[in-house]
Automatic annotation (TrEMBL):
InterPro entries tied to this protein: DSBA-like_thioredoxin_dom, GST_Kappa/NadH, Thioredoxin-like_sf
A Pfam family reported for this protein in Swiss-Prot or TrEMBL: DSBA
DSBA-like thioredoxin domain span: 35-200
Organism of derivation: Exophiala bonariae
Keywords, ordered alphabetically: Transferase
One GO term describing the cellular component: mitochondrion
Classification lineage: Eukaryota, Fungi, Dikarya, Ascomycota, Pezizomycotina
EC number: 2.5.1.18
Protein name from the UniProt record: Glutathione S-transferase kappa 1
Length: 224
């Protein structure tokens, strides 16, 4: 997807997103830069990079409950609850998202892509299963289009496309999601990982922003 910009950044910035974690879908929808989302297979990135999902380490899994609550509060998202069927094999819905991206306008793809997250962590629809994926797609398309998307996603073309996207991300150095490939106005390219690195991103892209700072509540008060 892309968001038009008034910042003078000439090149699109790319985001490789999987829908297997809440963090990977805390996307930059509020950014005023041109952004392209490339669906990838997060499991393939983990294997290819030697990384492991955070919940497979007990200490990280325990800590993750705190981070999830903090993210919901900070970003103002709906309450996130990990479903019983988590994790899913995201290769299935990600192929479907590639089809949607090819066949429909940016805004439609964007909304559909975000619903992969909502289904996984809010409404608890297992989109790895055909019936679950059909339910997600049915919220955006008519019955005939749902059938066509689900047909196309099983073809060699889209299987190969997802594999190539995943390989491209690995070649960039990706080890998880969200993974960004940033290009600033000078044509300099750098990678960035994480859903909470906006200050780093904006600084690199030359965007004016107000940084986080502690409010001085002592101003105006008499000191003894």
């Amino acid at each position: 997807m892309g968001c038009t910009t008034k910042t003078g950044i000439k090149n699109p910035n790319e985001h490789n997103g999987g829908n297997r974690t809440p963090w990977s879908v805390t996307l930059s929808l509020t950014l005023t830069h041109l952004l392209r989302i490339h669906p990838v297979f997060l499991g393939g990135i983990n294997v290819g990079s030697g990384n492991k999902p955070p919940w497979t380490l007990p200490a990280k899994a325990k800590y993750g409950t705190y981070d999830s609550k903090r993210a919901v509060k900070y970003f103002g998202t709906e309450q996130l609850v990990t479903p019983d069927f988590f994790p899913i094999l995201s290769v299935v819905p990600q192929r479907a998202m590639l089809v949607v991206k090819d066949r429909h306008p940016r805004e439609v793809f964007e909304n559909c892509f975000l619903d992969t997250w909502r289904c996984s962590f809010v409404t608890h629809v297992n989109i790895e299963k055909p019936e679950g994926l059909a339910k997600l797609l049915g919220a955006h398309f008519d019955e005939n289009e749902v059938k066509e998307i689900m047909r196309l996603m099983t073809t060699k073309e889209y299987k190969d496309r997802l594999t190539q996207n995943t390989k491209d991300a690995l070649e960039q150095g990706a080890f998880g999601a969200p993974w960004f490939k940033l290009t600033n106005a000078q044509g300099v390219v750098e990678p960035l990982f994480g859903s909470d690195r906006w200050a780093y991103m904006w600084d690199f892209l030359g965007v004016d922003f107000e940084d986080i700072k502690i409010v001085d509540k002592t101003k105006g008060k008499a000191k003894l």
